[in-house]
Write a sequence for this structure.
């Protein structure tokens, strides 16, 4: 026969065990519900991502294809532009070469016109002298200016030049070089006549007048004129002729004060 105390103890333990088991079962049920809820939320997120992917993927593919197509178009346009730039560069180079040739030709024609002008003046003077001979009028062999008058006119013309009254200076120097080419100041007059045209930026006429300086024997203005001829050609953009003239100064006037300047000008032209 079972002891009543033992029976009570057994019943108590059984109730306690059932209570613990029930509690654990209840906790497990709650945890399971929480896990299911999390799974549901993840599933909703996955479904949402899949939906977004279905919507966005075609758009991204379309955008990518458009970008590729656009880049190809840009590359094609760039190639066309580069070809046009190259064509224009070649045309510009041809025009520059033609311009140099035209400048050289124009200067040659201009030189010839000046020579013709000088011949006309000479012929006119000869005609006037012949007319005087026919009329029996005595021809004076005396120059227009004596030495003092020549120097006075020279200084006055030089003053006009320094004051930038170039028309007056040109008139005075022209009168001097045409009246007496043997005067000691004749070569200087010719040089300053050329300087008048150079200062007025009439470089083509200046070149012609500077060249005349070399016709005066024993002139000390030859290296000055040689430098200015080079600078004049440089100013009108005829680089090749400018190089030649600067090199001529270096070769023929090694002791000139303008030698370093010609060397530097030649160096700069070679760099450019």
């Amino acid at each position: 026969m079972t002891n009543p105390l033992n029976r009570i103890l057994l019943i108590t333990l059984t109730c306690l065990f059932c209570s613990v088991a029930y509690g654990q079962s209840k906790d497990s049920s709650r945890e399971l519900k929480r896990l299911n809820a999390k799974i549901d939320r993840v599933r909703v997120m996955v479904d949402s991502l899949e939906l977004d992917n279905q919507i966005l993927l075609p758009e991204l593919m379309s955008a990518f294809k458009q970008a590729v197509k656009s880049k190809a178009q840009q590359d094609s346009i760039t190639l066309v532009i580069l070809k046009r730039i190259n064509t224009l560069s070649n045309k510009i180079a041809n025009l520059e070469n033609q311009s140099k040739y035209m400048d050289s030709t124009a200067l040659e024609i201009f030189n010839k016109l000046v020579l013709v002008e000088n011949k006309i003046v000479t012929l006119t003077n000869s005609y006037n002298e012949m007319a005087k001979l026919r009329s029996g009028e005595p021809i004076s062999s005396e120059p227009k200016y004596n030495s003092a008058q020549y120097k006075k006119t020279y200084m006055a013309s030089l003053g006009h030049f320094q004051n930038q009254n170039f028309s007056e200076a040109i008139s005075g120097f022209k009168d001097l070089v045409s009246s007496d080419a043997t005067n000691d100041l004749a070569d200087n007059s010719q040089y300053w006549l050329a300087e008048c045209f150079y200062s007025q930026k009439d470089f083509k006429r200046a070149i012609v007048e500077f060249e005349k300086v070399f016709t005066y024997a024993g002139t000390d203005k030859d290296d000055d004129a040689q430098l200015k001829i080079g600078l004049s050609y440089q100013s009108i953009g005829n680089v090749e002729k400018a190089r030649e003239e600067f090199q001529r100064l270096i070769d023929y006037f090694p002791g000139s004060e303008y030698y370093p300047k010609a060397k530097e000008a030649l160096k700069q032209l070679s760099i450019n």
